[in-house]
Amino acid sequence: MSFLPRLTETAAGRPVQVAFRGYNNTLTVGEDEFSFTEKITLGHYPVLSPRPAMGKYENAFSPETEGGLERCRGMLDMDGLVYVRGNSIYVKGAKLDGYAVADSPKQLVKMGARVLIWPDKKLLDTETMTVEDLGAVAEDVSASFTLSRVDGTSYQGVTASDTAPSDPNNNTYWLDTSDNENHVLKVYSSALNMWSPVGTTYVKIQAAALGTLFQQGDGVSITGVDHAAFTRAGTDYVVAGAGDGWIVVTGVIDAGFTDVVTVERRIPDMDFLVQHNNRVWGCSSANREVYACKQGDPKNWYCYAGVSTDSYAATIGSPGAFTGAAVYGGAVLFFKDDCVHKIFGSVPANFQIVEERLRGVKAGCHKSLAQVDEVLYYQSRRGIMAYGGGPPLLVSEKLGRVRYGGGVAGALNDEYFISMEDEGEPGSWVTFVYNTTRNAWLRDSAGHFHEMCASQGDLFMVDAATGHMYTRNGTLDERYPATLYGPEGDMEWTARTGDFLMDDPDKGYLGRIQLRVQLIDADAEINVGIRYDAGQLNAEWVSKITGTGKRVVNVPIIPRRCDHFSIELGGRGNSKVFLLAKVLERGTEM
Asked: Are residues 173 and 228 in the same domain?
């Protein structure tokens, strides 16, 4: 008797996905990860759900890519937005009439109620709503120089000679010139019958052109003076007294004179600026220097009076250009591509610069620096780094081997947002979100946000291509410019799994998908699609789920033999996916 082959019944496999752990663009996408995401959130983790619609300020600015006259040139939080729109300054939506800046990219640095506008070197006072120049110069002015007291009053009857005057009266002044290098002003005391040096001597410089440009405590440079006794002290001075059309500085002269001079309160050219401990700090790649302004006074960068509030400058020896600056852990950080210079201390006498070799900020990515909770994040040549004071850690492995540049970042709650350009496809920009609590990434959407600023509990982002301004949590404030206010449109979302591979050499096929979903909006829908094997560009949509309520939905699949497949979920409206189960049928030997 002959027998037929016995075939064993194949059991259905049922892998279940109950947690959705974000985006993974590597070759090893986990069962609970996605190879592509669009407009979803980890805010309801472990549930998969679309993110809420962002708030939209339509046409708030001119498109950056078109070079419009009302582009967003810089943005800062001052309990409300301070921003530059073209060459105009706005404070919480109010334009400051009568003030203009260059139509160029800005760095805005806050210091109390004041804002430095860089590289214009201007200072905005948000309380008085006024703007003034940080620097000041009276150039090539004819000025008179006289020996004076600190209040600007002149000495009377001063005798300048190598020997003391004979038969002097009490309080007679004598300028001792016996030492060619150091002339000394002395005063006679009849009670003591002796000449005593005057503690500090001053020179009054007077010219109508000086006006009220300078004030007491300013550090100024005075050039063009042809008087050996005065110039022996150099060209940098601290203004000891000032009035309308005159200043007083320490110094000594034999006799009054007039000269054509330039008096200037200089502001150094700097690449990146930050504020720390009531000082603004900056760095210059051209000069290889770092600077700090006088404490509490961003107008003075060359004020050296030997006190704790002095300005500060130091030369940096490491090669390469500066690429960014930040404040973290009580220190000022000046980054280069392959290192960081940390500056510690509270006064110039104890400032200390420490250099650490590490993966620094990538050139052109200075806007990627943003702090989330206690960690500083930034874009390096290797990827996105998390810096906690020690060696920085790479956290962007899940973004794959794509090389990104031009990072612009912002922080909101426990999330780090960054818009980056694919360097392999110039002009192709993508915005990613890193959830620091879940240690998970999401690809949010295509698009280039060239400005980000956290303010009023929201993250404001400006689209370079359209000029629209968006807010992550949907904030809408009609003080800010727009032709239309409302939620963003086109809220279609997508989540695509990685390739599901069979563990044995038998061909398998997908029998059905089981979903546990909740559709909240009346017009919400969830679409289910399949991509079989490699090379299929578009998913084959096999089911559409509509209606409201929480329920289990079985999606039947017409079997197709394949080596691997991926599942794509998409839709619109408010909905949630609690469970995804893939029921697989194994092929037989026949």
From this structure: yes
